[in-house]
Amino acid sequence: MSSRGVPIKNPYRPGAANTPLFLAGRESQERILRAILRGAPEIPANYRITGLRGVGKTVLLKHFEEVTKGELNWAVGRLQLEPRHNREDAIVGVLHDLLLDVQAQVSRTESLRQKTEAVISGARSLATMTFEDVTVSLGGSANSKESNLASDLLETARIAVKSGRAGLVLMLDEAQVLVDDKDRDGQHPLSLLIAAVNTLQEQQVPVALVLCGLPTLIANLLKARTYSERMFRGEEVGRLTRDQTREAFLRPLDGTGKEASEDLLSAVMDDVEGYPYFVQLWGAELWDDAVDTSSNVLTLDLLKGLRAAIFKRLDHDFYSPRLDSLTPAEQDLLLLTGDCDYPPLRTADIHNVTSRKQGNVNVLMGRLADQGVVYRLQKGLYEYTAPKFHEYLIRRKSRSIWT
167-205: string of b/e by CB count within 10 Å (b at 16+)? Predict the structure, then answer.
């Protein structure tokens, strides 16, 4: 209870992209973002953030948006990409709509907002567009969709600067869903995006790109454009240290009248292994149980009584949806990988636990990678994209044996 007798809400925030009350251990990533934007536009400002599920990438990106819009005074367009955006016309279309929203947000006068669509439409027919003292040629592009996207980005940056902002930052989450076709005549949405941004940055237009996604994003970028390796400052978001995990667990308790025992803290840190989502889940379950038992101390005894329920919720909310969305053949193979040594996951070991032919196993593993369930380290070697997923597969198999 608060001092006014009103129940205090659970201070932990498990769930997809829920922002915790305290963001622990991400100071270095924020420092990099600040440095990148300070160097723009003379130095292209592009940031690539990768990591497994549950490490807080989306939460970090939302924090970046807040800092960038506020203290750093840039206009920001943030979007979570979906598989349906993995086509040239789709990515150009969804970014067009996003950028129109950004223009409306940063425009200082109603008349400018009303003219936004007309300005964009008219700009596409021009051979060149002038931004401040820079003229960016768009007519020479072999890809009209690339020109359209570059025009949208340029006009949004122009409006942002006219409205007193430093420029435009485009933040795209789940960016690993953008994958270029190998066929030259196929779809190349990622290449199109990179080329449009690069075209403007070469002319020192204040446009920055932040891409966030699973580890496969790194290879996708390199395949799309060989120069992308030099375009981006890369950073992997990983697990928290034990000290950071401790802080992430304890800080939400400040001012609540509840505390955690030292033996509980040690046990929680062992259980969650530094994954921010797990910190929030363990904390939320412990908090609710402490409230139900009218306890002001979160103890190891509480955790011991809750562990089965916590793992059940973890499996139901975090792991099972990834498995249940797959085809029966994909599910069968993925479940069998729980019988293999890990890490890493070796296709040679998978062949030993399945009767499927080698070609079929390779196809299914490729499909699992496309679905974002695993990612390829190198030929024949994979890892799961969700932390502790191998342990989940073992638990699931154990439950099926006894039911």
Answer: bbbbbbbbbbbbbbeeeeeebbbbbbbbbbbbbbbeebb
